[in-house]
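Tokens for chain A. Residues wanted.
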């Protein structure tokens, strides 16, 4: 672990944040957090309400990370056992890095849409990207939820909300590790195999293998969703 991450992990424990301990533990374990700090603009963030309330670049990341975790627990309360591994995966995605490096003050109402859309995008981008491989098994659910995959535009808040509600409901019904595959980009897995020289030389179609593994987990999720979907309204 480099000194910058070690310092960040220690400093976050001094902040009055609900998830300080989790953040400190997670950044130590995640090999992906280095990207966030490496490209961080060191400029401070000033409150639009109180000019004396100034956050350093690192404190801004801590507060944004804390908000991301709050919304993760709100939308995916049944995945608390797998929160660490899922958040670790989300930290590897460009959308998460861009969000954590943003310089908008959390208390500024002018940026409510920015924060809402950014966090929603982080939670649904993996599922959306994987639909090109899994559309056949999700077609009925998408139709039922009035989601037109071909017309989805992730720049539109309403489209993000529909997808987020669906992913949240799928995870709520599953409650198990299979839900990790709602967030995991298949294309990233494929690229990891391609970049591995030994695996690339093997006579195995890793693309099909990655798609198949993800599909197996998603089929389990769908089975549980179809069994429990009528009862979601009583718990959420």
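Reply:
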């Amino acid at each position: 672990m480099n000194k910058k991450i070690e310092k960040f992990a220690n400093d976050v424990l001094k902040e009055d944040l609900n998830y300080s301990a989790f953040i400190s533990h997670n950044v130590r374990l995640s090999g992906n957090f280095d990207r966030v700090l490496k490209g961080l603009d060191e400029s401070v963030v000033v409150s639009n309400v109180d000019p004396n309330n100034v956050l350093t670049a690192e404190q801004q990341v801590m507060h944004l990370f804390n908000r991301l975790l709050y919304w993760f627990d709100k939308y995916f309360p049944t995945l608390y056992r797998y929160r660490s591994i899922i958040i670790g995966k989300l930290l590897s995605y460009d959308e998460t890095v861009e969000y954590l490096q943003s310089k908008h003050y959390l208390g500024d109402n002018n940026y409510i849409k920015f924060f809402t859309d950014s966090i929603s995008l982080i939670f649904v981008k993996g599922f959306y990207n994987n639909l090109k491989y899994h559309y056949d098994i999700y077609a009925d659910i998408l139709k039922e939820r009035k989601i037109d995959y071909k017309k989805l535009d992730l720049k539109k808040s309403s489209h993000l909300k529909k997808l987020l509600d669906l992913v949240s409901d799928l995870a709520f019904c599953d409650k198990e590790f299979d839900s990790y595959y709602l967030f995991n980009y298949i294309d990233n897995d494929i690229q990891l195999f391609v970049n591995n020289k030994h695996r690339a030389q093997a006579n195995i179609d890793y693309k099909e293998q990655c798609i198949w593994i993800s599909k197996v987990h998603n089929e389990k999720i769908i089975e549980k969703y179809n069994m429990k979907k009528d009862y979601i309204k009583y718990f959420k």
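The chain has two domains: 1-107, 115-236. The longest helix spans residues 112-144.
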